[in-house]
Amino acid sequence: MLGEAAADARRVAGAAHYTGCHVHQESETLELWLFNAPPEVLQELEAIRPGVYVIHNDATHPLSELLTVQRSINLGAMRSLGIQVTKFGPRNDGYIWVEVITDLAAARAWFEAEYGPDLFRFYAPEHTVVAVVQLKCPETGEPIDVWRHRVGAPITANAFSTMIPCPHCGKAHQWTSGDRGLAAQTLQSSPDSTRVLVEYTPDGSVATALP
Question: Which of 19, 20, 47, 64 has the fewest CB atoms within 10 Å distance of its CB?
C-alpha cells in the first residue's frame, strides 16, 4: 500500500513539486517532501490517501531540478582541481548532498561557483581512512601523487588508460584502470595504510601499502 501511495504522490505532485519520500512501515505512513505545492495538490493527496501522508511542503528544489543539475556536474573539471567526491545525490529536503574526502571549503567554493548557491550540502565522512595513491617514476624512483582514495568507497567500473605528467623527470607515465584496481585492492587488505605505491616491474604492476 505504501508503495502505491508513493507512486500516487509523484503523480499528483508532478515534476514541478515532488522532491522525495520516506516510508514508515511501523506507522503505515509516508513522509512526503514537496516543493511549493499549491493547496489543491495538498487537498488531492489527502483525499486519495486519508491519513497516510505526512507532508513537508518546504523542500528547496524539486527532484526534477536536482537530477538535471546532478547530470550536468563536470566530474573531469572537478577532479582536475584535486577535489575528490565519493558520493553525491538528491536529498529529500531538496538539496544535493556531496561527500568530500579532500578540502571541504574548496569543494563548496567550486560547486557553488559552477552551479550556484543553495543547491548543495557538503559533509566529510567520519572515522575513515583516506590514502594517497602514488605511481613510482621509473626514471627517478620518486613517487607521483595520482589520486586520493577513501578506504571502503566504491570505485567506478570504467576502463581507461591515461598519461600522468611527472614532476620528477619531465616525462609522462601511463596510468590505467588496472593500476587503480590493484591499488584499491591493496588498500582494502591494508586498511590502516595511508598511501599505496604502484610501480611497473618486468613481471607487471606491483602495489605496495605503506604507513
Answer: 47
Phi, psi angles (nearest 5°) of residue 105: -65, -40
Sheet holding 18-24, edge to edge: 18-24, 29-34, 53-56
* pTM recorded for the entire structure: 0.63
Separation of alpha carbons 64 and 116, rounded Å: 17
Q: Which three cell numbers stand for residue 46?
A: 489527502
Domain spans in the chain, listed from the N-terminal domain onward: 2-56, 64-123, 130-210
Distance CA 200, CA 30 (A): 55
The span from the CA of 61 to the CA of 46, in Å, is: 22
Q: Which of 118, 147, 131 is nearest to 191 (CA)?
A: 131
Whole-angstrom distance, CA of residue 211 vs CA of residue 209: 7
Cite the DSSP H helix spans in the chain. 2-13, 39-48, 63-72, 75-80, 104-115, 177-189
The SS3 of residue 159 is coil
